[in-house]
Amino acid sequence: MVSRRNLTILDVAHTAGVSTATVSRALNGGKISTRTLLRVDDAVRKLGYQRNTLARGLVTGKTGIVGVCVPDVLGPLYAQMARGIEDVLTPLGMQYTLLTSSRDGGREGAATRFLLEQQVDGLILIGSQLSAPELTALVGDRPAVLVQREADATPYPTLSLDNAQGAQAALEHLFENGHRRVAHIAGVRRDGRARQEAYEGVMRAAGLTPVVIASDSTESGGTLAAAALADYPEATAVFCSNDRVALGLYHALRGRGVRVPEDLSVVGFDDLPWGEYLAPPLTTVRQPGREMGRLAARLVLGEKAVTESTSVEPELVVRASVCAPRGGDPSLPA
Amino acid sequence: MVSRRNLTILDVAHTAGVSTATVSRALNGGKISTRTLLRVDDAVRKLGYQRNTLARGLVTGKTGIVGVCVPDVLGPLYAQMARGIEDVLTPLGMQYTLLTSSRDGGREGAATRFLLEQQVDGLILIGSQLSAPELTALVGDRPAVLVQREADATPYPTLSLDNAQGAQAALEHLFENGHRRVAHIAGVRRDGRARQEAYEGVMRAAGLTPVVIASDSTESGGTLAAAALADYPEATAVFCSNDRVALGLYHALRGRGVRVPEDLSVVGFDDLPWGEYLAPPLTTVRQPGREMGRLAARLVLGEKAVTESTSVEPELVVRASVCAPRGGDPSLPA
DNA sequence: TTGAAAGCGCTAACAC
DNA sequence: GTGTTAGCGCTTTCAA
Question: Of B18, B36, B51, which marks where a domain is finished?
Answer without folding.
Answer: B51
